[in-house]
């Protein structure tokens, strides 16, 4: 199968495991069975574009209008080189599995029909095929990939390790994408629209305070900061936060020692002093003014 520039799919890799190729093979196994009274097809057909409904499981949420127009111009000149994939719902009624950009661009180009592979697929396979097919595309933005990973985990009941095998990524990569969904909506939108990079997003994702996250994000936009500069800012902020926590901890400890010192002074009827060092070692001094005063303190100590 030839590919044009705008619709180039990555080559299949063994790392996909039971990925898109395996799912399509599963469809071939049942291609001679009846589905809803209709026989599933295994050949490419020319289908009326108006008989194809969109994929309800489509993970892509944004299509660049200019890119679609460029693809439409290419289709006018060269036609559809890579067929779309659909499933048949009933007579002359189909549902898209993959290839929504090609379908939309074909309509813009004025095509009445489009070449398509007709497959048998249930809803679970539809979702998984659509998600994996889109994830493999280079032009899917980071948020769309993150949402696709999250849907595969939640709706297809996959664990991160299983998901990694299906899409040819390690668990760390999958987790890094999913963590992007914890960012504030404003930052997610900027990442989706390529106003910031994934490197920027990963640099600020560990900041706990939302307002601080947004402040750094706005600084990135206003000053066009590099990823390296943002990483330095976050590192400095982290160091200051740690120092502040240490200071608060020391203050709390000093307060506690003062309370103990006050109680001891009251108990012994004399000014007791507690001295501490940085490693929390120290000494307690109980002064006395006479031998009688010393005996009184010793009695209090049961000595």
Automatic annotation (TrEMBL):
Xref: SMART domains: ParB
UniProt key word Secreted: no
CDD domains: SPO0J_N
Protein name (record): ParB/RepB/Spo0J family partition protein
UniProt family annotation: Belongs to the ParB family.
Domain ParB-like N-terminal residues, every copy: 45-135
Nucleotide-binding among keywords: no
Alphabetic keyword roster: Chromosome partition, DNA-binding
Gene3D superfamilies linked to this entry: 1.10.10.2830, 3.90.1530.30
Alphabetized InterPro entries for the sequence: Chromosome_partition/occlusion, HTH_ParB/Spo0J, ParB/RepB/Spo0J, ParB/Sulfiredoxin_sf, ParB_dimer_C, ParB_N
């Amino acid at each position: 199968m030839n590919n044009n520039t705008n619709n180039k799919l990555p080559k299949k890799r063994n790392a996909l495991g039971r990925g898109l190729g395996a799912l399509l093979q599963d469809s071939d196994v049942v291609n001679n069975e009846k589905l809803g009274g209709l026989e599933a097809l295994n050949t490419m057909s020319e289908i009326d574009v108006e008989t194809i409904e969109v994929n309800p499981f489509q993970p892509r949420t944004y299509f660049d209008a200019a890119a679609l127009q460029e693809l439409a111009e290419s289709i006018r000149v060269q036609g559809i080189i890579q067929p779309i994939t659909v499933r048949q719902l009933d007579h002359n009624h189909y549902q898209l599995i993959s290839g929504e950009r090609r379908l939309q661009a074909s309509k813009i180009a004025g095509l009445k029909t489009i070449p398509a592979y007709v497959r048998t697929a249930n809803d679970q396979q539809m979702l998984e095929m659509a998600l994996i097919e889109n994830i493999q595309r280079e032009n899917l933005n980071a948020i769309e990939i993150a949402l696709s990973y999250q849907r595969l985990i939640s709706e297809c009941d996959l664990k991160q390790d299983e998901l990694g095998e299906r899409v040819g990524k390690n668990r760390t990569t999958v987790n890094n994408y999913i963590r992007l969904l914890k960012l504030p909506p404003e930052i997610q939108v900027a990442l989706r629209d390529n106003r910031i990079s994934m490197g920027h997003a990963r640099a600020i994702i560990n900041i706990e305070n939302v307002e601080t996250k947004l402040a750094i994000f706005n600084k990135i936009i206003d000053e066009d900061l590099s990823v390296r500069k943002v990483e330095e800012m976050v590192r400095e902020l982290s160091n200051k936060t740690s120092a502040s926590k240490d200071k608060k901890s020391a203050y709390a400890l000093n307060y506690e020692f003062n309370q103990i010192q006050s109680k001891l002074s009251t108990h012994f009827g004399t000014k007791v002093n507690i001295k501490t060092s940085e490693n929390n070692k120290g000494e307690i001094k109980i002064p006395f003014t006479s031998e009688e005063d010393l005996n009184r303190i010793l009695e209090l100590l049961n000595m």
